[in-house]
Each structure stands twice: as structure tokens, then as C-alpha cells.
Amino acid sequence: MASESTPKWPPEIHRLAESLSLKVFHDPDKVKFGDHGEPANDFTARIIELMFESDRGCVLIAAAWIDDAVAKYLKESFEDGSSADSAKAFAELSTGFKAPLSDAWARETLLLAIGAIDKRIADSLRAVRRLRNKYAHQFTAAVLTDHEVDEVMKHLSDEDRTSITQILALGTTLVASAPNLPTVPQWMRVGFSLVRLRFVFAFAAIMGSLERAKRETTGFVEFLEKMPAEKLSEIIKKSAKKVGIDLPSDSSNPGDK
Which DSSP string do the residues of the chain spell out, in sequence order? Predict the structure, then answer.
């Protein structure tokens, strides 16, 4: 941790963080550093940690982080203003062995089906999940390539891709000069992959898209109140079938099995 006597960090770094926060998250304090280069909040610290993971570790952790955000989005939306019975029913659908919504694909598909996210966001989630599956089952060394990152980046909005390109241009300059700057923190003195940095920024953009979707859409409960029960049942059954799960018929109770 930096002491009060440590020279303050160059203002360019703060502008880089503020640019990422505003353009990707629309929140000036999302990615933030202290005066001496230390991460100022938990999200910033976790972003830094991703940069210095192995490529495999970076992808697996980012995918897990995204999946956790998706699961929380679903959970919070169903619980917001819903009855205790409705919240309990959602818990049964999303937890436990072979629960229909315990699968990442099913959660993403339900978000898309009810209009909580658009196809672009859904495609970006799936791109990260495909890369995660590849790296999780690859026994040889995993090294991120520009092509793999491009496969994720192509599903981002034009605005996010432009913002990332601009931020990377500044970031690349700062990283190159970091070893020669006496005031930068230790984490910037260790070199890291610029391909991985692109992936981390793409990951941040996806997280930003999810956060914006949460702010811009109404809760699921309001939406579901307008959806016929048969339609919702059809969506859930199709999602379950897609991942190889046969749900019990309406006349049977899963709890009795």
C-alpha cells in the first residue's frame, strides 16, 4: 500500500480509468484508483487481478464472474416485489441437481426470451461461454489469440468497441512507459499480455451491458404477469430440453420423486 509520501500517480491513469468507467459502465466511479495507483474499490481490484492471471485463468474467472452476474440478475428480478411463493418457485427452478435454470445457457436464454437482454448481449455471453468451455477442456497450454478475442468483441456494441480501441491506445502507451515511471505501483511494473488486456476490457464491456440492461428494463415480475402461464411453461421446458433435461409433467411433483 502506498504511503502518503509516495508521489501521486500520473493524471493520465485516472483519465484512463474514468474513460473506461464512463464509456463502458456509464458510472464514473466503477473503475477507480487512489492517488498513488492503488485500486479504490473491489471491482477495480478484481479487474487488475484478471490482467495478471494466466490466459486460461483469466477466461475461466471472467466467465464465472459473468455467470454469477447473470444468475443474480435473474434472482433479483424475480424477487423484486414478488410474493414469497413466487420467489420460492424461482429458487426451485434455479438451484439443485438438474434444475432447469441451473445451467448458464438456460439462464442466458431466459433473459433473452423475456426481453431482459437483447440478442447482442446474449451473443456476447455465449461467446465468452464457448471460449470458457474450450479452455476448461484443453489440456495443452492455453494462450489467448487476437482471433479468439475478436470473436467476443464482434458481439459488443459499436460504441463499446470504439471505446475499447481508444482506451487501449492510451493504455498501451502507459504500459510501455510504466517501467520507467518511478511513481507507478508494483502491479504495473510487471508486464502483461495486451491480448489479455483486450479480453479483460471486452469482459468489462459485457458486465457494463448487463448493468445497463438492469437499469433500463422493468422487473421480470411485471413482465411475467403479462405472459400467459402456458407460454412461460413452454420457454422453461424448451430451455430444459436443450440441455438434456426432461421436466416432469404438470401432473407430477418433482418433490415426490
Answer: ---TTSPPPPHHHHHHHHHHIIIIIS-TTSS-B-TTS-B-SHHHHHHHHHHTS-HHHHHHHHHHHHHHHHHHHHHHHHHTT--HHHHHHHHHHHSSTT-TTSSHHHHHHHHHHTTSS-HHHHHHHHHHHHHHHHHHT--SPP---HHHHHHHHTTS-HHHHHHHHHHHHHHHHHHHHGGG-TTS-HHHHS---HHHHHHHHHHHHHHHHHHHHHHHS--HHHHHHHS-HHHHHHHHHHHHHHTT--PPPTTS-GGG-
How many distinct structural domains can be found in the chain?
Answer: 1
The domain in which residue 194 lies consists of 11-245
Q: What's the pLDDT tens digit per position in 162-213?
A: 888 877 776 666 656 555 555 555 555 555 677 888 898 899 889 988 888 8
Residue 47 lies in a domain: yes
